[in-house]
Amino acid sequence: MKKLPAKPVAVLALGTSMYLALKKSGALETLKEDIQTVFERDPAARSVPEIIFCYPGLHALWFHRAAHFLWEHNFKLAGRFLSHISRFLTGIEIHPGAKIGKRFFIDHGMGVVIGETTEVGDDVTLYQGVTLGGTSLKKVKRHPTVGNNVVVGSGAKVLGALKIGDNSKIGSGSVVIRDVPENSTVVGIPAKVIKKEKVDKKVDLEHTKLPDVEGKVIRYLLHRIEELEKEISALREGKPETIDRERKKEAEELKKIEKYIKSYEIEGLE
Q1: Are residues 180 and 193 in contact, defined by beta-carbon separation less than 8 angstroms?
Q2: CA separation, residue 3 to residues 6, 9, 12, 152, 261 (Å)
Q3: What is the pTM for the complete model shown?
Q4: C-alpha–C-alpha distance, residues 80 and 259, integer Å
Q5: pLDDT tens for residues 102-157?
Q6: Torsion of CA 237, 242, 246, 249, to 10 degrees
């Protein structure tokens, strides 16, 4: 019976040991969960090899876990250097001090920045160009705390030690500088709450269907100017019936627009 060469046996033994170690630590299950998360949130994902080799958001997350481990064990420089390599390779900058929850997903990812004292919950999705940034020069908590099941649209900036409530959505290009309640949708610069309603706990990536509150108000104001011009003309021509009719119409329209605006108002975030 022929003896197996020592080198292949050693490689096989090492591979088996690594597999068992990963399985015992739970790292293997975490990797499987990461890959499954990509399948669930990106319809473009076709296969496991494609996800492993072609998703920079996933690579950045894996790099971050290693860098965060080093940071937490007081190997600060090594952690920063590893995060710097990750930034160079993926275009995504995650400080090794940031705390990130389960099933985190960065779609596309180029230009994403996550600061040192950021805390991110479970089932959070970020799109390209998102900044979770700080606003203080002091060595304190100065970056956002993002709750569970939050979607942050492309180009959005969340600045300061504020809190984003669970199940919230931040519209693309928004600048958030104040706390956001749970189950809210915010848009604008600075961002305002335009919708607050109970939502399903599952991840909802539909963050484009946003009401245009300001557009509605501007259209109303233009219409109001037109009605006032009619009223002025009626006054000049001495037509009291026309004036009364226009004023009643204006009162009804004013009530409608006030009701519409109030439906999006949330105390403390006007």
Answers
A1: yes
A2: 9, 10, 15, 59, 82
A3: 0.74
A4: 52
A5: 999 999 889 999 999 999 999 999 999 999 999 888 889 999 999 999 999 999 99
A6: -170
